[in-house]
Specification:
Length: 1698
């Protein structure tokens, strides 16, 4: 080889490669020229060239392609040149075309790819499952779902895609069968057919009652029978109902019975279509359910009823009766009433202000009206008017009523008012009786809130808009205002003034871009900015004129528009479409008349929609009112003379029901006969039956209506009021409000309205597709085919990549020497690679997204957040408002089951979402649908159930048929009819003492076919008018109400006015009205007789003369004797004339004077013990009570503890929990000791079940528990509840879901720093030290987990918190914290750390066994703090046997320091003490069974009893009534010592409970709060107040420390002659002056959840001087709820009334 070639090619391999490239013309020209020359000149190169040609020939033969070589001149083939003639033919270089470079490799690669593709496809297709049988696919679309339509459009197609194609949609005719199912029960069924295009319609009967969660199941079979059956399930809108709830009276005394009735009618027709299951509950003043006060059952003829007897110990206050639908047919209905001691007034008084509010300088105008209880206006009698503002008299006037018993009051308010606390009192005196009517003057100071409601929903640019508005004060109450609407530059554009109930209307033409605001001119000094909504353009404006239309009258209105628009006017009445009309809106005013017929009555919604949108888009909306013509009329058949009766007389009444035409008609009646004077004690006018169903049930805040029934009258004034009402309160769909307050959260009202109208987000037509067995088969088949296709694509791409790689290598060999060819090859490689990568990629990604879409509803829902499309600013404004409204509604919409959970495939979305994210297509059969279906629906229908034949055979074997069985079962479920007919109580026939107020109650009285029914009852001894109230309904949908009267009169009458309660030492100047109702003069002899505790003063008899018709008041004085014991005493007044006589007996309660003192001496009795009693010599005579109690078992401890807790003021979660927990402990102990006593267990379980229902009512809406169930939840209290709930699970069924969510909520309150958060908005603060709260929460959590058998859970989930707990405890000397921490660490098996803390705890124990913490989680003090700490130490020591002696000593101290009535201090202390004692029960050694326990004084037995043979019976042993003997001893000696003796007993726990009233207070200096109370008002020079006057109680609660205090109680005692003004207490509560209040006799009990450091809580409330005399009230006091033994007392208030 020549030198040049040696330098260029290192070896022969490189030379051969170059020669091969030369042959294929892949070298550049210079290199090719050199090689050709070497071939000619170098034999070695020529030899290699010959080998190269042979190799090329072999390759060509393999490819069956001949090699085209042309000889050169040298006999060697040379590409592209002529062959030299002297070279051998076979050795000439080849001259080939360039196409051969590409053609051969490409053909080879293609053949290989085809073969590989065939093999791959054949392999995967052979693995596919068999193709399922073709089936019919069903799509069901709800027509007009917004109006709960029961019409459904059905489309049927073939799942295999074959068949007729219409518009690209494959259709097939099919046979349809459908059924309405509810919980697998068929309610209705039918058949239908589709047309040749596969379209059909199913219409359900309009009268079909559809319960909640009912479904329409449609099954389809191809008409030719070639396709298998398939089905689809569609959820149905339930039948909407309304319920009217009534009680017999508005006010009750503790111990009386509340009768109640509910009427549930179908909302659209008012027909009693369905009997529904209802639960009634009673809610106390704190918002908690009253234990045991619930009832469940099934209505009959749409009527439910029942009766609750209020416990005699129930606190006074506002109670609420709640009716709940157990199957969701109607929203909760509530009815409030009062519980308190009261006296029925003798006058029926009304005092009405002419406006809803007044400002400084305004003239107040009010109308007063009065009539006697027995009927007759109080004509020409004296009235005294007194007006006060900020406790200063601003107006006094004496006058007389008119002949109609009325009086008009007018006075002017001061121009400078500081607080705005005003009262107007009217004292009316007819000579015999004097009564006072007091009402708060509605004075408005400060901020005013105004909401604006443009008619239709928006302020529209350039058009005349009517704008409705409502004004409220800071408490949300309607007020009256005047003002002007101003533009941005202050120019007046409109004036406004409220018309009724804080509502009004004005007009203006707004301009786009302008901003409008309201300037309030009256009341004065209102400076907050009130803005109108922003102005939009191109929307229509609706003007409905008067807004109230006669029955059957078309709805006339004007629609103003600035643009041409195709619109749809839709009229809906209570969810039913009553009219629909297509209109063409032109610029300007478009008058319209929409016929609605008589079907539309009550509140009607008129909506204008843009019909060019699909579906039609709501633009504006308005509520109007259509009067109802159809109604029931009820009358009493007896004549007016027949309704005038005498006391005690038996009475029969006949009721006649007629329709609006006067024709008799059958009906169902609810009848009540009640003392009208008792009914008038409630100033709130309740809506009657027609008002409720037609109006107030359809609006947001019916409580705002001062006189709701007025709105239903036929006057023009009432029509205007209804128009204002519906213009301001009736919105369903659009957002209302001002700019600074656009969305007022009327949560409770919105919940109610949404339950009636359904979810607005689901208001567009929604379609549902088949998701049965066939669809599942087709889904699996298609998924398998898609999977095979994806694998074919994937494997083909891999194979193609390998083939292309080889192909490119072969091409690259030939292109190596050409730069341009290399570039082309690289581009070809890239293009080919992209082609291969993209082959099927789009389909693959789409299939993958479909598969991902089917994964979960949550994942697919998360992908629905695409940004909205661009829109015009005004469109954005409109959409934002609508969206905001929907969001507000969505927050409160009732929870419903997802269609996916019910086996449904929802194929279309809400149109608003569709507009936002664009249309999305879904695969047939629901592949990738957002709500991918499951097999739950199919599984539901495949559940084993009794067939119809099975049921028939079963019934036949029992001698029944299906109808009789159904009737029997329903009858068993129905409410028993709680009817009551008064029977006159006859004791002494000459004395009136039966003063029953409810005489008759019949919730379900059915008339005959002629509409007649009769009732019978006895009158009581009251001289009064009894109101006959009747509510009537008929199957036709007619309803009606009636109010009649029966009068009970006497010609001669004695009527004393008794105080409700007095104190020993009081003087009662008893006013007695002596009435001559005849037309003749009479001489009257009268006398008084009273029980021994009441001593008449002066003469007990007297004689007087009465002129015809005269009424005279005589005062007869009584002294309440000092030293009298607590008791009820009676007073009898007798009067007689020559021919007539009357006697009446009344009772009152007597309480001892002084300051109540309770002392408890506890100890352990072994055979005998001496107990010295330290009772002061000056205790109040008659007040001493002494009782000895013994507790032979831990169960007795628990039961006694419950009794002690029940004696405390009650109402919050912690008190309820403390009452409930000991029952759990007692039952657990009986289980543990195998000593169940049936009687005790039954009592405990009964209380436990009732308490559980009350406990869970305190759960906060946002989870967790709080004192009164108000957000935010309280961490420590929730942990305490969780611990109790887990213990309760061992003895009763407790909601696991509730326990789980409470624990989840608590875990979510961790702060990430080893502790727990405390919401800064806490309404109750237990402890100011965070580490105490952390320790308590961790202890309660660990105790709960131990009770649940998951002790490791706390250790695993709360390691950081436990580490922090251990660290803090190790550095603390607080026994309370150490006890909590040690118990917690032992619970989670961190025993080494726990025992270390237990060792430290032993060092902190006092010699007597107790421990005292530095603080507690409830910030308790005194004995309660010691008790809580010691109890926790017992619980901690009990977890390790080593510390048994320490636990014994601590438990002994707990028993020895029991407080009165079996308790151990505060509620928290009592619960922890009982928990410790029962835990320590096995260490108690008591041998007392059957022993005789004696109480001896000076060696004489003064009481004895036997300890039960079964000491585990749970009964505490009590010897009471020892006070009299001990008081006698104290009269002789200054000291008394009792001896307790019980032979053979060992370690028997006992207490000696002593209670008495002291003449001087014993306030505890350690009590951190104090209270003052005094009377303020108009007193004369002697300090007396006139009867009938109003006084003010000024009470102040002081926190005397610089630390915040937990729950605090202040009890204000009122003298006997004063009566609190309940309405004012309710107003103060609403204003937030205290958290809530209770009434107990003469005491008003106020509660605060927390008291700020050094703060003062001032309360001023009014009282009325009702009865002359001199009275002393109970002593007022204040204390911390959790340190009740430390009280601060204040001097009792004293008043003398003349």
């Amino acid at each position: 080889m020549n030198t040049n070639l040696n330098n260029q090619y290192n070896d022969k391999d490189e030379l051969r490669q170059a020669l091969l490239e030369l042959h294929y013309d892949l070298l550049d020209e210079a290199e090719a020229t050199v090689l050709r020359a070497a071939i000619d000149s170098d034999a070695d190169v020529a030899a290699e060239w010959a080998n190269t040609l042979k190799l090329a020939s072999d390759i060509a033969d393999a490819a069956r392609m001949p090699v085209n070589s042309e000889p050169t001149a040298h006999g060697i083939a040379r590409p592209g040149v002529e062959t030299r003639g002297n070279e051998p033919e076979g050795l000439r270089p080849t001259a080939t075309g360039k196409s051969s470079v590409w053609l051969t490799p490409t053909l080879v690669a293609g053949l290989a790819a085809l073969f590989a593709l065939f093999m791959i496809g054949w392999w995967h297709l052979s693995e596919l499952p068999a193709k399922p049988m073709a089936a019919v696919r069903i799509e069901a679309e709800v027509i007009d779902q917004a109006n709960a339509s029961n019409e459904f459009l059905i489309k049927t197609t073939r799942m295999d895609g074959s068949g007729l194609s219409v518009g690209g949609f494959q259709v097939t005719p099919a046979m349809l069968s459908f059924s309405v199912l509810a919980q697998n029960v068929t309610l209705f069924s039918g058949v239908a057919e589709t047309d040749h295009l596969g379209m059909g319609k199913i219409v359900l009967p309009s009268d079909l009652v559809i319960p909640r969660e009912a479904e329409l199941r449609v099954e389809a079979t191809s008409a030719n029978g070639e396709r298998s059956e398939s089905s689809v399930v569609v959820p149905l809108e339930p039948t909407r109902c309304l319920t009217y709830l009534t009680v017999d009276r508005p006010v009750y005394r503790p111990g009386e019975t509340v009768y109640f009735r509910s009427l549930t009618l179908e909302r659209a027709s008012f027909q009693p279509k369905v009997d529904v299951p209802i639960r009634y509950e009673l809610i106390d003043p704190s918002g908690a359910a009253v234990a045991g006060m619930f009832s469940e059952g099934l209505t009959e003829r749409a009527v439910g009823n029942g009766a609750f007897t209020i416990p005699k110990t129930a606190p006074g206050g506002s109670y609420t009766l709640v009716a709940k639908s157990l199957d969701g047919f109607f929203p909760d209905e509530r009815r409030e009433f009062q519980v308190r001691a009261y006296r029925v007034p003798r006058f029926k008084k009304e005092l009405e202000f002419r406006r809803r509010s007044y400002g400084p300088g305004d003239t107040v105008e009010a109308d007063f009206k009065a009539e006697r209880a027995e009927g007759g206006m109080l004509a020409n009698v004296s009235v005294a008017v007194v007006a006060k503002v900020d406790n200063e008299v601003i107006h006094e006037q004496a006058a007389e009523t008119t002949a109609a018993g009325t009086y008009a009051i007018s006075f002017k308010l001061p121009t400078n008012i500081r607080k705005g606390a005003g009262q107007l009192a009217v004292v009316i005196d007819d000579g015999g009786t004097q009564e006072t009517k007091v009402k708060t003057i509605p004075i408005q100071l400060g901020r005013v809130d105004v909401e604006f409601f443009p008619e239709g929903g928006y302020l529209v640019d350039g058009l005349r808009n009517r704008v409705y508005f409502v004004a409220r004060n800071s408490l949300g109450e309607p007020i009256d205002i005047k003002g002007e609407v101003q533009s941005r530059d202050g120019r007046q554009v409109a004036t406004l003034q409220t018309t009724r109930d804080g509502m009004g209307r004005f007009e203006l033409v707004p301009k786009r871009g302008e901003r409008y605001s309201l300037r309030v001119s009256s009341p004065i000094d209102v400076h907050n900015t009130i803005r109108l909504p922003a102005v939009v353009k191109e929307l229509p404006v609706i003007d409905t004129g008067v807004g109230v239309f006669a029955a059957g009258e078309p709805i006339t209105m004007q629609v103003r528009s600035t643009v041409d628009r195709n619109a749809l006017v839709r009229v809906v009445c209570r969810g039913q479409l009553v009219s629909e009309q297509i209109v063409k809106l032109k610029p300007g005013t478009n008058p319209m008349s929409i016929p609605v017929g008589k079907k539309a009555n009550g509140v009607v919604r008129v909506t204008i929609l843009d019909s060019d949108k699909t579906p039609a888009l709501p633009l504006v909306e308005r509520l109007v009112f259509c009067r109802q013509e159809r109604q029931l009329q009820v009358e009493i058949v007896e004549s007016a003379e027949g309704l005038d009766r005498s006391p005690g007389e038996s009475t029969r009444l006949t009721l006649q029901v007629r329709d609006e035409t006067g024709e008799p008609t059958p009906a169902v009646l609810g009848v009540a006969v009640v003392d009208d004077a008792a009914l008038r004690m409630d100033d709130t006018e309740r809506p009657n039956l027609r008002t409720h169903f037609l109006l107030t049930s359809e609006i947001q805040k019916p409580e705002d209506l001062e006189h709701a029934n007025f709105y239903m009258s036929d006057s023009d004034e009432a029509a205007e009021a209804v128009d204002l009402l519906l213009g301001t309160q009736g919105w369903r769909r659009f957002v209302s409000g001002s700019a600074d307050q656009p969305n007022v959260d009327y949560r409770e009202q919105l919940v109610r309205l949404l339950q009636l109208d359904g979810d607005p987000l689901a208001a567009t037509p929604t379609s549902y597709q088949t998701n049965g067995r066939q669809v599942q088969q087709w889904n699996r088949y298609r998924e398998a085919a898609q999977s095979a296709w994806r694998l074919i694509l994937f494997q083909t791409r891999i194979l193609m990549a390998m083939i292309v790689l080889l192909w490119m290598i072969s091409i690259a060999v030939r292109m190596r020497r050409s730069s341009s060819a290399r570039l082309a090859g690289l581009l070809l490689l890239a293009a080919t690679s992209l082609f291969l990568y993209g082959c099927g990629a789009q389909q693959y990604s789409e299939r993958a997204s479909v598969a991902a879409d089917t994964g979960s509803v949550e994942e697919s829902a998360a992908q629905e957040s695409a940004p909205p499309m661009a829109m015009e600013p005004e469109e954005m404004f409109m959409d934002e408002m609508a969206m905001d409204g929907m969001k507000e509604m969505e927050k409160v919409k009732p929870a419903v089951e997802s269609p996916a959970q019910k086996g449904l495939v929802k194929s279309t979305r809400d149109e608003r979402n569709k507009n936002a994210v664009g249309n999305r297509e879904f695969d047939d059969g629901g592949f990738g649908g957002k709500y991918r279906g499951s097999d739950q629906s199919r599984m539901m229908f495949e559940t084993d159930t009794l067939t119809a034949d099975d049921l028939k055979r079963l019934l036949a074997s029992r001698g029944l048929d299906a109808d009789s069985l159904a009737s029997q079962l329903l009858d068993e479920l129905r409410f028993p009819v709680r009817q009551y007919a008064h029977r006159h109580v006859v004791g002494d026939p000459e004395v009136r003492e039966d003063f029953a107020e409810t005489l008759y109650w019949q919730p379900l009285l059915i008339t005959d076919s002629e509409g007649r029914a009769s009732i019978r009852f006895d009158l009581s001894d009251s001289v009064t008018t009894f109101r006959v109230n009747v509510d009537a309904h008929a199957t036709s949908g007619r309803i009606g109400s009636y109010g009649g009267a029966v009068t009970s009169r006497l010609p001669f009458q004695m009527e004393p006015k008794m105080p409700l309660e007095v104190t020993t030492g009081d003087r009662i100047d008893l006013p007695v009205a002596v009435v001559n109702a005849t037309k003749a003069e009479m001489q009257v002899g009268m006398s008084i007789n009273a029980d021994s505790a009441l001593q008449p003063l002066g003469e007990t008899t007297r004689t007087l003369s009465l002129a015809p018709g005269q009424r005279r008041r005589e005062l007869m004085s009584l002294n309440v004797l000092a030293g009298s014991a607590e008791q009820d005493a009676s007073v009898e007044i007798r009067g007689s004339t020559e021919s007539m006589q009357d006697s009446i007996r009344r009772t009152l309660h007597i309480a001892p004077a002084g300051y109540p003192v309770d002392v408890s001496i506890a100890g352990r009795l072994s055979d005998q013990a001496s107990v010295p009693l330290l009772i002061p010599a000056d205790f109040v005579d008659g007040s001493l009570a002494v009782a000895v109690r013994a507790y032979p078992s831990p169960v007795a401890d628990a039961m006694a503890g419950i009794d002690s807790i029940l004696r405390e003021p009650h109402g919050c979660f912690e008190q309820t929990s403390a009452t409930n927990y000991p029952n759990t402990m007692a039952l657990l102990y009986m289980q543990k000791s195998d000593s169940t006593n049936p009687e005790v267990a039954q009592r405990a379980m009964g209380m436990l079940e009732r308490g559980y229902g009350k406990l869970i009512s305190f759960e906060c809406e946002k989870r967790g528990y709080e004192w009164f169930g108000n957000d935010p939840g309280h961490e420590a209290l929730s942990a305490f509840g969780l611990m109790q709930f887990n213990d309760m699970t061992k003895v009763m069924d407790v909601s696991e879901e509730m326990i789980t969510r409470t624990r989840v909520w608590l875990m979510g309150r961790r702060d990430g720093k080893g502790g727990f958060k405390r919401n800064p908005r806490h309404l109750h603060v237990w402890s100011v030290q965070q580490h105490i709260v952390n320790a308590y929460v961790l202890w309660a959590l660990s105790e709960a987990d131990v009770a649940a058998g998951q002790s490791r859970r706390t250790a695993n989930e709360l390691k950081a918190e436990l580490d922090q707990l251990a660290s803090v405890a190790n550095s603390s000397n607080d026994p309370y914290l150490i006890s909590l921490s040690a118990a917690t660490l032992m619970n989670v098996n961190r025993n080494t750390e726990g025992r270390k803390l237990l060792d430290r705890l032993t060092q902190l124990q006092h010699e007597d066994g107790h421990l005292e913490g530095a603080t507690t989680v409830v910030s308790s003090g005194g004995l309660s703090r010691k008790m809580e700490t010691t109890a926790l130490a017992v619980l901690a020591w009990s977890k390790a046997a080593k510390y048994a002696s320490n636990a014994d000593g601590a438990a002994a101290w707990i028993r020895a320091n029991r407080t009165g009535n079996g308790g151990f201090g505060s509620t928290q202390a009592t619960v922890l003490a009982l928990k410790a004692l029962i835990t320590h029960a096995n260490h108690q050694d008591v041998s007392s069974a059957g022993a005789i326990l004696k109480v001896m004084l000076d060696g004489n037995v003064i009481g004895q009893t036997q300890i039960p043979q079964d000491i585990r019976s749970g009964s505490a042993v009590e010897i009471a009534g020892l006070g009299q003997s001990i008081a006698a001893k104290l009269a002789e000696s200054d000291s008394v010592e009792l001896t307790l003796q019980a032979d053979g007993v060992n370690n028997l726990s006992y207490t000696v409970d002593v209670s008495y009233n002291a003449t001087t207070p014993e306030s505890d200096d350690q009590c951190p709060v104090k209270v003052t109370a005094e009377l303020s008002g108009k007193f004369d020079a002697d300090g007396n107040v006139a009867a009938g006057d109003s006084l003010t109680v000024k009470a102040s609660l002081f926190n005397t420390t610089g630390e915040g205090q937990p729950m605090t109680v202040a009890i204000i005692g009122l003298p006997g002659g004063l009566e609190p003004q309940i309405e004012q207490l309710d107003e103060l509560k609403k204003a937030g002056r205290f958290d809530y209040y209770e009434l107990n006799g003469r005491e008003v009990i106020f509660y605060w959840r927390t008291i700020e450091p050094n703060s003062v809580k001032d309360i001023e409330f009014g009282v009325t001087a009702a009865i002359p005399g001199k009275y002393t009230g109970p002593a007022s006091r204040a204390y911390l709820y959790y340190t009740a033994e430390q009280k601060q007392w204040t001097k009792p208030m004293v008043v003398e009334i003349r």
